[in-house]
Amino acid sequence: MKVLKYCPNCGKESLNWDGEKKWSCSQCSFTLYNNVAGAVAVVIRHGDEVYLTRRNQDPKKDKLDLAGGFVDPRESAEETCKRELFEELQLDIDISNLKYITSLPNIYQYKEIDYNTIDLFYEYRVQKKFEVSIELSEISETQWIALKDINLEDLAFDSQKRFFKEYLKNL
């Protein structure tokens, strides 16, 4: 991980990383916390198939991914699911049909900074398969894939690999 050196408060090269969650300035006592960020991932499911996206940008470019993203300030996790599915897939969902499944910790590395996240997994079942117009800046393609055909190594993030390992056991 990239280590920050300069204090945003006093500007001196005096930030010290504790190796886990905070930077502290030895000159002015400023503390910068690297708190956990909330993120959602939605399993869009029709029968024994799920709708996956392929990432079109780093981190993990070209890997399979669940639709989702980071929770914005003053937004519930369910509202995030609705917003992200619309932004990424132009899919307008009814949040009352979201089913919370579990949460898993993850590390999202972006531009050499490790962001600790808590990934909240939801399931959203659809009555029929669909294809959507995708946001090409984030996603290069989408595909329906049979649950039995999911290769965990093709998935972008460790939390999703752990999630699907358990999810597939419970079918």
Could you name the key traits of this structure?
NUDIX_hydrolase-like_dom_sf; 39% strand; mainly beta; 7-stranded mixed beta sheet; 3-stranded antiparallel beta sheet; 2 helices; NUDIX_hydrolase_dom; Nucleoside Triphosphate Pyrophosphohydrolase; 171 residues; NUDIX hydrolase; 15% helix; hydrolase activity
Give a written overview of the molecule:
The protein has 171 residues and is mainly β. It has two domains: 1-34; 37-168, Nucleoside Triphosphate Pyrophosphohydrolase (Alpha-Beta Complex), CATH 3.90.79. Helix content is 15%, strand content 39%. It has helices spanning 77-89, 158-169; strands at residues 15-17, 22-25, 31-33, 37-46, 49-55, 64-65, 67-70, 99-110, 113-125, 139-146. Strands 4, 5, 6, 7, 8, 9 and 10 form a seven-stranded mixed β-sheet that branches. The chain is elongated, with a radius of gyration of 18 Å.
